């Protein structure tokens, strides 16, 4: 979160913080709805839970790889230290 706020201009820090918080809340609501649907529509509870956990792990790993790639690009451009 600090990187998002720091990259915004000083007079737009409040807007950047608000946009970040709204996107986080919307993502959480969509995730709960999606995973709840997967659990409810599966034949067995554990099948839906396993699928939801696998999707959550894949999303987490994808976000991690994207963050590492962004830091490396920024460090190569001289912006931030890796």
Task: Pick out its properties.
about 80 residues; 3 helices; elongated; mainly alpha
Outline of the structure:
InterPro entries: MFS_trans_sf (IPR036259). By secondary structure, this protein is mostly helical.
Write the layout of secondary structure elements.
Blueprint: H1 2-7, H2 13-41, H3 45-76
Helix pairs in contact: 2-3
InterPro entries: MFS_trans_sf (IPR036259)
Keywords: Membrane, Transmembrane, Transmembrane helix
Protein name: Major facilitator superfamily (MFS) profile domain-containing protein
Description:
The structure is a single chain. The protein has 82 residues and is mainly α. The protein has one domain. 82% of the residues lie in helices and 0% in strands. It is built from three helices and no strands. It has helices at 2-7, 13-41, 45-76. Helix 2 runs antiparallel to helix 3. It is elongated. It starts with a helix and ends in a 6-residue tail after the last helix. The model has no long low-confidence stretch (mean pLDDT 86).
Give the radius of gyration.
17 Å
Alpha-beta content class = mainly alpha
The percent range for helix content is over 70%
In terms of DSSP E residues, the strand content is: under 5%
Largest sheet: none
Number of strands: 0
Broad shape: elongated
Keywords: Membrane, Transmembrane, Transmembrane helix
Protein name: Major facilitator superfamily (MFS) profile domain-containing protein
């Amino acid at each position: 979160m600090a990187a998002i706020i720091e990259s915004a201009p000083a007079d737009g820090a409040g807007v950047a913080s608000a946009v970040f918080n709204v996107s986080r809340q919307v993502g959480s609501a969509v995730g709960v709805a999606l995973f709840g649907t997967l659990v409810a529509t599966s034949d067995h509870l554990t099948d839906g839970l396993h699928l939801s956990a696998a999707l959550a792990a894949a999303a987490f790993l994808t976000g991690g790889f994207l963050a590492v790639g962004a830091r490396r690009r920024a460090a190569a451009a001289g912006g931030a230290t890796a």
